[in-house]
Amino acid sequence: MSEARGSTAGGVLKRHDGVHPGWAKARLASPRALPSDSRSCFTPAVEVIIRPSAESAADLVANLIARDLRGNPHLVLGLATGRTMESVYARLARMRQEEGLDFSLCSTFNLDEYVGLPPDDPHSYRHYMNQHLFGRVNIDPRNTHLPDGLAADLEAECRHYEELIRRFNGIDLQLLGLGRTGHIGFNEPLSALRSRTRVKALAPLTLKQNAALFADPAQMPRRAITMGVGTILDARRVLLLATGVEKADIIARAVEGPITSMISATALQLHGHCTVVVDEAAAAGLSCQDYYRWIFDNEPEWETFQ
What we know:
By secondary structure, the protein is an alpha/beta fold. It has helices at residues 21-29, 54-71, 83-99, 125-132, 154-167, 204-211, 229-233, 248-256, 289-298, and strands at residues 6-9, 12-15, 47-51, 76-79, 107-110, 112-114, 144-145, 173-176, 198-201, 223-226, 237-242, 274-279. The strands form three sheets. A seven-stranded parallel β-sheet has the order 3-12-11-8-4-5-7. Strands 6-10-9 form a three-stranded antiparallel β-sheet, with helices on one face. Helix 2 (54-71) crosses helix 3 (83-99).
């Protein structure tokens, strides 16, 4: 976790930690003028990239993963599930088929798994990953890891999952989606910002949102094993993808609001290398949109993706 100075007020953490690390590089890299209304945006805690559409946002995320995998064949990936991720995994599978993107030496750790579902249940996240990614690329199944939601001792399973991540020397790139409550993984409101892998009861809004995926909503599990917020922050890089107008309000609160355990995604402001990729619809509530676009146009890292 990166170090950040701050103060507390009203139960939330306010940041006072200086200029965004990419600002100095961007300022030197291009003579283009900074947007005149961006003075208050000089210290964003995370890097925000706005793309024109959900498709182009997913393209960028897939290309970032592919770039890191080509640069490090032994990459340790943290993976997420959900509808937003399906387009990313479809693009990665296509890169494997058309460009020979090699997954044979990489390892993966998923954020979470429902308690009580066997791996072959069509609603389990193991089944999801096999269907959308693992079964479509040349990854070694022995190197794909998810929590065991059927473990007899769930607390021991959580400790084992943390130890397994440590054995792999941590996660290099953690992919995240964003829930309607602002949760990352299943870190529901009031999740401790230093929390580790554990069992969590799912919030009513999460249950309502995910129940639509079950033929019988009453069969949806009420608990899940999830990486903790602290576990996620230990990743060397974090990459969050959110699209659609329904995510606009929570993205703005997560990226530009105060850090609070009520919205676990706000903890990403404490990470030293976090990139949030959104489409125009999800960016609608952001107050620093011009500045974020300026960063994408001027930051050297993004030149090859334009």
